[in-house]
Amino acid sequence: MKTLKGESIFLRALELSDLDFLYNLENDESLWEVSNTTTPYSKYILQQYLENSHRDIYEVKQLRLVICLSDNEAAVGLIDLFDFDPKHSRVGIGIVIFSEDDKRKGYASEALRLTCDYAFSHLNVHQIFAGITEENKGSIKLFEKAGFEKGGVKKNWIFSEGKYISEYFYQLIPNP
Known about the structure:
Order of helices and strands: EHHHHEEEHEHEE
Distance between the termini: 28 Å
Oligomer: single chain
Strand content: 25-35%
Number of strands: 7
Number of helices: 6
Helix content: 25-40%
CATH architecture: 3-Layer(aba) Sandwich
Number of domains: 1
CATH class: Alpha Beta
Largest sheet: 7 strands, mixed
């Protein structure tokens, strides 16, 4: 499928072989703030998740794809479509590049573009939205560069490290 292949990366479905990668990612406490997680996941629970990850986005309202490098197929991150709402033609998007060594190489930008193209062309959504904390300057820059516009602020929305931080609401609506 051409939609999910770029220059440096490609996106693929989750595989059972992703268990250790997913385990490390989901249990990284530094990422819990953006995923609304408060407790660790067991390998057993994640294996069950992987065994059911083939279910259709129209049924489960989400799709998680692995971001892989084109040259060696190494997994470097995940990109999620979530809260899929076919009635209102919208879907949320979130992305994470796991290793600091793989950040700022254009992988997230390429994965975001590929996933947005997929959502617009295959899911026929009217808009894609994202929530980004005010302190996440890298994600703000990434999403704004991709054409997302800030539509609002959820003040003191996230409690993190003993303080409340605001979350920006971003939307991508082609030719509104």
